[in-house]
Amino acid sequence: MNAPDVRSFTVGPVQENSFIVRPDPTSRSALMIDPGDEPQRLLDAVEALGVEIEAILITHCHFDHIGAVAPVARATGAPVYCPEIERPLLTDVMSWVPPGFGPFESYDPEYTLAGGERLSLAGLDIEVLFTPGHSPGHLTYAIPGALLSGDVLFQGSVGRVDLPGGDWATLERSIGTLLARFPGETVVYPGHMGVTTLGRERDTNPFLAELRVRVPAATPASGPGVPPR
Length: 229
Ligand SMILES: [Fe+2]
Description:
24% of the residues lie in helices and 28% in strands. It is of the alpha/beta class. The strands form 3 sheets. The chain has a 6-stranded mixed sheet with strand order 1-2-3-4-5-6. Strands 7-8-9-10-13-14 form a 6-stranded mixed sheet. α1 (39-49) runs parallel beside α3. The longest helix is centred in the last third of the chain and has 14 residues, at 168-181. Fe (ii) ion (FE2) binds at residues 60, 62, 134-135, 151.
């Protein structure tokens, strides 16, 4: 199976990565992940690609990841899938936005997710994983060969744990679960900064030094399209 077509758009003052994802570059159906800001730019991209957004998935409800949810949902008619625990942040956005950012519009999501679900949307099989630590309800979306992992793991770094509900031991455990579960060549599309792979972070990320000792190396025989262990 070919790798899904993933387009990245870095938006807003916090330089958050929003994604448009579809099974292949000819597919007319797509997902949008974490529309964080600059809704018109994202909607222009949807039009330029000639796709219909079938669903909007949110990894976590920090304002930089949800600032454009309401206008994008309204314009596309796509239902919104939100981490269950963090729903109150989306339904009352401005109560949680630090001074100097926004204004952003609240949204009442059509669906909530707790992790453990499997979704079939826009022609993609999506596994929903509960990956708290950066935020209490954080979700990672696994698609064939790749992870849309929000603020769990970055190129050479990890999500901050000093915000409300953040906890390093919990985040480290979440990252360990991903490392143990998916092969090293799994592409990681994070919520900030560049694209990386699980294997590269496992081997070089300074924040994962202890995990490197504890988590066994991923199976090298696995490849894109091979079901994760
Ligand atoms: Fe965040």
